[in-house]
Amino acid sequence: MKKYRHITAIAAIGVTASLALAGCATGNDTAGGDASGGDKGTITLGFIPSWSDGLSMAYLAQDQLEKLGYTVELQTLTEAGPLYTGLAQGDIDVFPSAWPEVTHAEYMKTYGDDLEDLGAYYENAKLTIAVPSYMDIDSIEDLKGQAARFDGRIIGIEPGAGLTGVTQDSMMPEYGLDGEYTLETSSTAAMLTVLGEAIDNKEDVVVTLWRPFWANTAFDVKDLEDPLGAMGDAETLNFMSHKGFAEEFPDAAELMSKIKLDDDQYGALEDLVVNEFGEGQEAEAIDKWLEENGDQFDWVVKK
Q1: What does each C-alpha distance from 295 to 38, 241, 268 come to in angstroms?
Q2: How far is residue 194 from each of residues 35, 112, 216, measured CA to CA in Å?
Q3: Helix 188-200 to helix 2-16 angle, to the nearest 10 degrees?
Q4: pLDDT value at position 10?
């Protein structure tokens, strides 16, 4: 579990502070940018560090935008609500990992008029309920009447996460679990700690997860079947900007609209950024990923 504990420490940064991580990757004191960029202006990317899809894509987007001549600043937040608020108000230019169709649908309903969708870069993202693979439970339906095995708890993530809302407002009532279980929320890091300790001790635990997410391969877990579809259909991961971004930065918007990753490409990106290199070496992880995928996926170089 060495890899897991290292990543939990990284995730905890997003929970305990609002410090940008890009300075670690670039050596720039202003949380992003390097000597190669800046001529075309500054673009601010906002993300939540403990959500590794946004973390990975923020550093990939930073690399590519800097090659176009922009200075890129990375701004970290701990909750989706303030992130979308900042995006809609123009304090953040781009959120590089929005889940607009299901997970963040409520935020899109609230702020959608002030946002621009720059395009999807990944298909088949989904929300899940998961348990360790050694458990004899295979469906969310099987949780009914089994609360004592889990101390009446479903272990969740941040209170403001879209996954939390879907679990609490859709899944639990649909399956009749809201009177039997409590959704325990705090942070992604805390959820991973509980999950890791339970697996180490071969104990029963049920958690909220999602795909793509490195934890699905780092931990011996399985998704529970969702016959009622209460966790929602698969959706896309998108670059989302404030209204007017594409007009202000047309080549940046065009670049992000062209980025497309399949499961293998995305999995390799996240594994390098989060696991193999880790905190402080994000830029090196992107360089390594582009070395392996650059002929097809270094969009600026291709252009």
Answers
A1: 25, 27, 15
A2: 42, 35, 15
A3: 160
A4: 36
Q: What is the pLDDT of residue 262?
A: 87
Residue in this structure with the two tokens 């990939």, named with its chain if needed: 60
Q: Which two tokens stand for residue 17?
A: 């502070």
Q: What does each C-alpha distance from 202 to 72, 135, 146 come to in angstroms?
A: 44, 9, 17
* pLDDT tens column, 256-274: 999 999 888 888 899 899 8
Q: Which residues contact 251 (CB under 8 A, 6 or more apart)?
A: 40, 68
Q: CB of 195 within 8 A of CB of 204?
A: no
- DSSP letter, residue 214: T
**Farthest CA pair distance, the chain:** 62
Which DSSP letter does residue 133 get?
T
Q: pTM (2 decimals)? A: 0.76
Closest among 269, 288, 299 to 122, alpha carbons compared: 269
Sign of CA dihedral 214, 24, 99, 177: positive
The helix-helix angle for 52-68 and 263-270 (nearest 10°) equals: 90
Q: For the chain, list the domains and their CATH numbers.
A: 2-123+237-302 (3.40.190.10), 125-223 (3.40.190.100)
Provide the H-helix boundaries in the chain: 2-16, 22-26, 52-68, 80-89, 105-111, 162-166, 172-174, 188-200, 215-218, 245-248, 250-258, 263-270, 282-297, 299-302
